[in-house]
Design brief:
Order of helices and strands of chain B: EEEEEEEEEEE
Helix content of chain B: under 10%
Number of strands of chain A: 11
Strand content of chain B: over 45%
Order of helices and strands of chain A: EEEEEEEEEEE
Shape of chain A: globular
Structural class of chain B: mainly beta
Radius of gyration of chain A: 13 Å
Largest sheet of chain A: 7 strands, mixed
Number of helices of chain A: 0
Number of helices of chain B: 0
Radius of gyration of chain B: 13 Å
Oligomer: heterodimer
Structural class of chain A: mainly beta
């Protein structure tokens, strides 16, 4: 069964450093998403991406964040200058042919900012 | 924007009993309500979903009900088994942005 994969599973970085979180969505899916979950809090929407551009983003997704689909398979989230409060679990998701199709989530990347 | 509230935050049930988790939402434009199960160290896995043109949906031991007027929806798990132990999240969506509830940690005691 196709699945969303994410790397790395755990990333530790120093405050102020740039990090790139990587995701491989399900093949043939057209919609891609990033969510995050701070420990003990709700899963929060960050951004959705379709047709090589951002279709929607939340207030959390400020200028420090960017997304890219550098090739036909990868989908990345870059945090330019990490802050302590960026420490969270980051989930990538993808959905198929419609924006209201089921979203399938990856296993997540735990980001720890020291 | 949408706000989804989920109750209870923890639920302990005896194996074989039923478990019910309830969610409310605020945005009347929301029309899609998935439920996800998250096991330790894994991402959320879809277990069932319901769209606003349907009042109830069932898949084996799992059922979801939706009351659009009252803006609430519920997950029902019957004949619970130890492998049902996990964190369950409800979510609502108008379009492709999911807004999640706070999660319910379900423990099924053998």
């Amino acid at each position: 069964e196709p699945e969303v994969t994410q790397t790395p599973s755990h990333q530790v970085t120093q405050m102020g450093q740039e990090v790139i979180l990587r995701c491989v969505p399900i093949s043939n899916h057209l919609y891609f998403y990033w969510y995050r979950q701070i420990l003990g809090q709700k899963v929060e929407f960050l951004v959705s991406f379709y047709n090589n551009e951002i279709s929607e983003k939340s207030e959390i997704f400020d200028d420090q964040f960017s997304v890219e689909r550098p090739d036909g398979s990868n989908f990345t989230l870059k945090i330019r200058s990490t802050k302590l409060e960026d420490s969270a679990m980051y989930f990538c998701a993808s959905s198929g042919w419609s924006s209201t199709d089921t979203q399938y989530f990856g296993p997540g990347t735990r980001l720890t900012v020291l | 924007g949408e706000n989804v509230e989920q109750h209870p935050s923890t639920l302990s049930v005896q194996e074989g009993d039923s478990a019910v988790i309830k969610c409310t939402y605020s945005d009347s434009a929301s029309n899609y309500f998935p439920w996800y199960k998250q096991e330790l160290g894994k991402g959320p896995q879809l277990i069932i979903d319901i769209r606003s043109n349907v009042g109830e949906k069932k898949d084996q031991r799992i059922a979801v009900t939706l009351n659009k007027t009252a803006k609430h929806f519920s997950l029902h798990i019957t004949e619970t088994q130890p492998e049902d132990s996990a964190v369950y999240f409800c979510a609502g969506a108008a379009g492709n942005k999911l807004t999640f509830g706070g999660g319910t940690r379900v423990l099924v005691k053998p």
